[in-house]
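ok so for the tutorial part 2 we go from a plain amino acid sequence to predicted structure tokens. step 1 is just haveing the sequence, like this:
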Amino acid sequence: MAKKAYKLLDWDFCLSLILITLGAVMSAIALELILIPNSMIDGGMNGVSIILNTVFGGSLGIIIFLVNLPFLILGYKQLGKKFILKAFYGMILFSVLLEVFHSYSPLIDDTLLATVYGGILLGVGCGLIIKEGGCLDGTEIVAILINRKKSISVGQVVFCFNVVIYGIAIFVLGAERALYSLLTYFISYKVIDMVSDGFNSAKAAFIITDDGKEIADEILKKLGRTVTVLSGEGIVSHGYKKVLYTVITRFEVSILKDILDEVDESSFVTVFDVSEIIGNHIKSKPVETLEDRQSL
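step 2 — the prediction. this is what the tokens look like for a chain of 296 residues:
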């Protein structure tokens, strides 16, 4: 227990929290001081929260937290403790900062400037949080879970959800403001893509280890990804190695790191972009472990 507690407090984890804090500050400024004063909304569940706040009033920060809370609970057991802890921290801080900045005067009162610079600032903030393995919106959690079961990318799920949100915004904010909001979304989406190196892109991982069975089992169990096990030999160490190959999403890189930290810290890993995937690398039903297959 002491060893696991220490890992949660290591330097890398603390640095992630610092960057998530910075991302939450930037995102809160973008929403509360730029976009919302110009009658524009964000996408996802945060967009739903802004619409609810516009129609019924109340505290936007509290509404955003309450709307996103069920998605955190949904992903708790399936996405790993570190991911959920970072997401929970980011959402709590984001909600508090929205309340803090609510009393400040807007930074921009020009609609076009607000669309561009609000989208950029929001994209950088969200991109930092995504890069560090967290998120500010429960839609992303649902998208990851759907992505594991179906051959639908995280970006496609989020986009389809946002089409519905901006469609509803037309009746609440008017067509012009809804279209400006949609333009803001596209700007922030591209910036997120640049900052986080593609939260929606596929990544291939090669893991070199002495015994890959336990790592492969955890990848199958927690990520639902197929794993190919190859045999290798170290030139310097003169020992036989297991080489694991798997394809994951950008969101799941941080979860893969957590798995390796828990199972085998001495493993050597390389992660690189995948331009195209042909075939299904996702298990749509509970997978058996390597131990189960070897017993057959």
